[in-house]
Design brief:
The chain has 117 residues and is an all-beta fold. The chain contains no helices and eight strands. It has one domain: Crystallins (Gamma-B Crystallin, domain 1, Sandwich), CATH 2.60.20.10.
């Protein structure tokens, strides 16, 4: 159950793709949610999904805008650089957050799912 059309989740830092920063969850991302944000440091929330959600494309208004994420669920999640789970898949490990996906991955998310890549 989400607030926006569709988004993608799952990444780590640029130096260690998939190895996210230690969890300092933004207040807006509550238990069992995977959340994505338009700006670094959890700026503007693009949307969230409950852990375990199926593969979804990001809405056209939120495509290629994600800069930070938080996975406050018991499952890993994944975001992709192309729609339909195409392109590069970047993992968002359970109970971790990434305040800045880095220059290479910034504004690249086009689809996501609430399970491992």
């Amino acid at each position: 159950m989400a607030r926006i059309g569709a988004v993608t989740v799952a990444v780590g830092s640029i130096g260690a793709a998939g190895a996210a920063a230690a969890a300092a969850y933004p207040a807006s991302c509550t238990s069992n949610q995977v959340c994505v944000y338009d700006n670094t440091n959890y700026g503007t929330e693009l949307g969230w999904r409950s852990g375990g959600f199926p593969l979804q494309d990001v809405s056209s208004g939120n495509n290629d805008k994600m800069s930070s994420w938080s996975n406050h669920s018991v499952l890993n999640a994944c975001w992709y650089t192309n729609s339909g789970g195409g392109g590069v898949g970047l993992q968002m490990n359970q109970y971790t957050s990434d305040p800045d996906v880095g220059l290479v991955w910034n504004d690249q998310m086009s689809s996501w799912k609430g399970s491992s890549c």
